[in-house]
Amino acid sequence: MIHPTCRPCLAVAALITLSTASARAQTQSIVFDRGGSTIVFEPYAPNIVRVTLSLLKEPATAAPGYGFVAQPSAQGWSRQGDGYHSSRLVVTLAPEYPGTPLPTQVDIAKFFNGSAPPAHITISTPAGKMLVDLKDWSMSVPNYKDGNASALHDRRASDAAFYQVGATFASPDNEHYYGLGQNQEGFLDHRGHTVECWHNYTATGGPTVCVPFVVTNRGYGLIWDNPSKTTIEPGFNEQTKWTSEVGDRVSFFVIAGDTTDEIYSGYRLLTGATPMLPKAAYGYIQCKQRYSSQDEVLAVAKGYRDRGLPADVMVVDWFYWTRMGQIDMDPVKWPDPAAMNRQLHQMGFQTMISVWPRFLPGSRYYEMLLQKGWFEQLADGTPTNGLPYDRAGSDIDTTNPEAARWYWETVRDNILSKGFDALWMDETEPDLPPNGSYFHIGPGTRYFNIYPLFHTAAIYDGFRRDIQQRALILSRDAYLGAQRNGTLFWSSDIYPTWDTLKRQIPTGLDFAASGFAYWTNDIGGWQYLPAEHHPAHPPLLDPSDARENVGGYDDYPELYTRWFEYAAFLPVFRTHGSRKYNEVWSYGKAAEPILEKYLRLRYQLMPYIYSLGYRAHESGAPYMRALFMDFPHDPRAADLRDEYMFGPAFLVAPVTEQGATSRTVYLPAGAEWYNYWTRERLHGGQTVRVSAPIDTLPLFVRAGSIVPLGAPVTSTNETQPIARVRVYPGANGDFTLYNDDGKTYAYENGGARLTRLHWDDAAHKLSHTGAAAWEGPDAGVAEVIGR
Questions:
Q1: Which strand (E) or helix (H) includes residue 562?
Q2: What phi, psi does 638 have (nearest 5°)?
Q3: What is the Cα–Cα distance from 56 to 115, expressed in whole angstroms?
Q4: Which of 415-431 are b and which e, b meaning 16 or more Cβ less than 10 Å from the residue's Cβ?
């Protein structure tokens, strides 16, 4: 690292050591040899370029790291001097040796210098709009001066050399930063907040997940190609710094986009498409910590059906096994899981079961895994464990393709063969942090964040190879590209508090902004309820008939109800937590009808929601959207942390304050809005106070929206006719209504039905093309608000 007072010393060192730069064009890239470093510009599309810098030529010219699937393409690019040009981007390496050093700088350079020769790289549009301005980079051997020498202890003699790598970019005052995975401190715009980009179960506010992809409001996204622990310092001192603990190059992609959706299209090209999930995943997922027998699971499922309530997935959480790592089911509590699953399927449920990657010594597979070296392990081959406090054994190393294949086949034969439909792959950090340990692919310190990509891929690839139905995988963690593995993600073991609920909104919005459409949380929080909790305001729901479940937490039925209302407008609608009971009838008679209301609303909106899933598959863009995505020219939308768009139609503004019966809502400029409940039409660009009694989620619909609504069903397994197509006039509108069999991958080969709906506001007319989506005349289905 450079001495903090001596950025110009790099130029001084360059005067002594740098030779004249040479550059040579390759088929797909331009390679610059500059002063002992190698710099590469490598295009992937007219609006996408990769930049690498390294003191070592081979890493600089090597392919991208894990998570990427695209191949370089120079189509539409041309070399011009020390730059690369396309119709969308101009990438330039500035000339060497800018300026003359001051005498003091020469003196300082005798004792202090940076780690890499200077490089100034700019990426702009052909019209001259600056997107990315790289001012500096570094590639330093870990050392005592920088306080990172301990990283060298995590490297074996056979491993490639360790370097700390980083880059510094200019940061205009009006640049905002979104994405970067999951951070639960409550921020949306990361500007002015250091982001620790690594999987950390014990992080401030709640577990963090690293997805090193940032989207800005200035027309570009940047993917940082390094899976080690990475620190991002956005917007400090008019610059943004990225620093990765271990690497052998700086490597990053820049994706230009006239809209945020174009940026996500680029992310999709680079890292893979988000597949359609089983349709059941868009419905309601019933879970708790934990259903401990097959009789209990069946009783809960029957409870939903006896009440005529819609639900799609029943979940079996952990400790159904006889021993950690047995990958079996305790026959005392689970005497016939295949019969249980047949009954649940007959009731219209699919089933998910939690499978851990941990194996205890003495469990039936442990010795075999040990002998084959298939564990995350220490340098001497000893499996990493969490002793003395964590006694759950060691993690299988699914970065090893043989271990990954064995793991899938064992889970397939021992678990899925009993009729389960989906897998909850828990502890995908992995739970035993890999720094100081080793994977098949290399040191855990170097590949710290990579495990969830490999682990979910082991399961998804197995589904695609051996199972006819769509994969559904619940994972606690993610990394670049994990969205292509049939995964949905949740925010882990969060607390049952109002503060947590409030912070879940920006947490989810940033995770979605990282290129992941399917995110959720544990409705009501996962952790155990405190023995007593007395709110500042009188509870809006009487807890007296729910005391067996909520104990002395007086306002918990209110909290759970507000959380449930919000969750009905998440990409994945899933309840979970460590309460005695966790069904919609478990929180008192006052709460029950409200929970039922939003449960039924979710299924009424199923044609709309499922179509959003198809939109995410096709575009790569999320459908839970922070307001900056759709209203980039409204400065008030840049950092709104408690509102979001759910698809193109709905603006959702959850209530997160205990005792509140109203809240303010900002309606973004550039659109007209309708209050969903009252149908009042309002102008955008204003803040309104709306009534929000305990049974009302503040919800608005953008003018010009077309919202298809389905008939009542008890699960997505049933055929759901279109009951109405609701139009909110005030602007022209389009919506693609999507449907398929909901279970297989036939949609990849044309097995889907698309109906394109169009609203002509001037003519006040709804039209449609493509597949027939309803029976009877349009007049019997179309509903125009205000008519």
A1: helix 556-567
A2: -70, -30
A3: 13
A4: bbebbbbbbbbbbbbbb
Q: Is the peptide bond before 290 cis (omega within 30 degrees of 0)?
A: yes
Task: Output the DSSP codes for 431-478.
Answer: SS--TTSEETTEETTTTTT-HHHHHHHHHHHHHHHH-SSPP-EEES--
Please, which residues bridge with residue 214 across strands? Answer: 179, 222
Residues in the chain: 787
Per-residue pLDDT, averaged over 241-268, amounts to: 98
* pLDDT tens-digit readout, 167-221: 999 999 999 999 999 999 999 999 999 999 999 999 999 999 999 999 999 999 9
Torsions phi, psi for 430 (to 5 deg): -75, 170
State how far the Cα of 529 lies from the Cα of 507, in Å rounded to an integer.
22
Give 18's pLDDT tier (boundaries 50, 70, 90): very low
CB atoms within 10 A of CB 579: 25
Q: For the CA atoms of 414, 416, 418, 419, what is the dihedral angle to 10 degrees?
A: 180
Tokens representing 156 are 């074996």
Q: Which residues pair with 84 in a beta bridge?
A: 79, 91
Tokens of 599: 């449960």
Q: Is 173 a catalytic residue?
A: no
Tokens of 720: 């759901």
- Tell me the one-letter amino acid at 417: S
* Spatial contact of 64 and 50, defined as CB atoms under 8 Å apart: yes
Q: Which of 533, 570, 291 is nearest to 424 (CA)?
A: 291
Residue spans of alpha helices (H) in 347-450: 366-372, 401-414
CB–CB of 764/738 below 8 Å?
no
For residue 95, is the peptide bond before it cis, meaning its omega torsion is within 30 degrees of 0? no
Tokens representing 759 are 């609203």
pLDDT tens for residues 712-723?
A: 999 999 999 999
Contact present, 121 and 91 (Cβ < 8 Å): yes
pLDDT, tens digit (0-9, with 9 covering 90-100), for 178-193: 999 999 999 999 999 9
Higher pLDDT, 289 or 80: 289
Query: Does 778 qualify as catalytic in the annotation?
Result: no
pLDDT at 102 (0 to 100): 85
Helices (H), 48-188: 57-61, 103-109
| 395 has catalytic annotation | no
Distance CA 88, CA 134 (A): 18
Q: Catalytic residue among 225, 426, 555, 634, which? A: 426
Q: How far apart are CA 753 and CA 780, in angstroms?
A: 21
Q: Give the closest residue to 430 by CA, choosing from 391, 480, 475, 484.
A: 475
Say which of 262, 429, 510, 583 is annotated catalytic.
Answer: 429
Task: Report the run of H or E that residue 14 belongs to, with start and end.
Answer: helix 9-17
What integer is the mean pLDDT of 541-568? Answer: 98
Q: Is 594:222 a contact under the CB 8 Å cutoff?
A: no
Token readout for 199 is 């999987």
Side-chain-facing half-sphere of 161: CA atoms under 13 Å: 14
In the DSSP assignment, the letter for residue 484 is G
Displacement of CA 43 from its chain's centroid (Å)? 26
User: In this structure, what token pair is assigned to residue 366?
Assistant: 């442990």
Return the pLDDT at 626: 98
Instruction: Identify any residues that bridge with 286 across adjacent strands, giving them in sequence order.
Output: 314
Q: Would you state the pLDDT for residue 96?
A: 81
Helical spans, DSSP H, in 56-139: 57-61, 103-109
Contacts 24+ apart (CB under 8 A), 532-539: 535/658, 535/659, 536/658, 536/659, 537/658, 537/659, 538/659, 539/658, 539/659
pLDDT digits (tens, 9 = 90+) for 450-508: 999 999 999 999 999 999 899 999 999 999 999 999 999 999 999 999 999 999 999 99
The predicted structure's pLDDT at residue 112: 86
**In whole angstroms, what is the distance from residue 281 CA to residue 670 CA?**
34
**Catalytic position from the list 133, 317, 493, 639:** 493
- DSSP assignment of 629-686, as one string? HH-TT-GGGTT-SS-EEETTTEEE----STT-SEEEEEE-TTSEEEETTT--EEESSE
